[in-house]
UniProtKB/TrEMBL annotation:
This is O-methylsterigmatocystin oxidoreductase. It comes from Rhizoctonia solani. The keyword Iron applies. Pfam families: p450. Pathway: Secondary metabolite biosynthesis.
Amino acid sequence: MGSATFKLAYGCRHANDQDPFLINAAKATDNLFNATMMSNFLKHTVRKWREHKNHAVDAPYEWTKTQLATGEFEPSVLSALLQDRKLASGLPTKDREKELKELAYILFAAKNSKKSATVLIAFVAAMIANPEVQVKAQAEIDSVLGYATRLPMASDEAHLPYVRNLILEVLRWQPVAPTGGPPHVSYQDDVYQGYDIQKGTMLIGNPW
């Protein structure tokens, strides 16, 4: 899974899972999830993690830029975004590069983590134990998407309530992390699903 998602993000092929790019990115991802655990250890280790994370984000990004400049690149999400000059055109170059670096890295991190594999394993186990649930979910998907006619889009979510709740139940039944990510702070007043969120409010996500 790691090699495939890295190629998708950066267009970089790896012969094995000992490639330095993969190792650095996987380690940085593990650090990110460890950071979501609520304790006071974080202030003692975050400085060590920052350098590791920056290298994991910067190195493959610069590699893809070099490949693109020489014309010897393979199609990837990052190479396509680098060629799209209209993307984030209103941002300074430094900010634009930061956005692209983070986007490519998170694409790899989200798909390559042990957490993603754990969710898939839990889902398969649940479907084996409850085949009637799989039949019902498949029927709902077919009714919305047709029989193998297209892939789902974000706009389809509202029309797939059973499938959506099935995914949430798997995440509740076999949670893969203590929270849905590190704490965030709202930088402006906001309203989300009927909840008033004031500027400065600390938010901790819930996967389900």
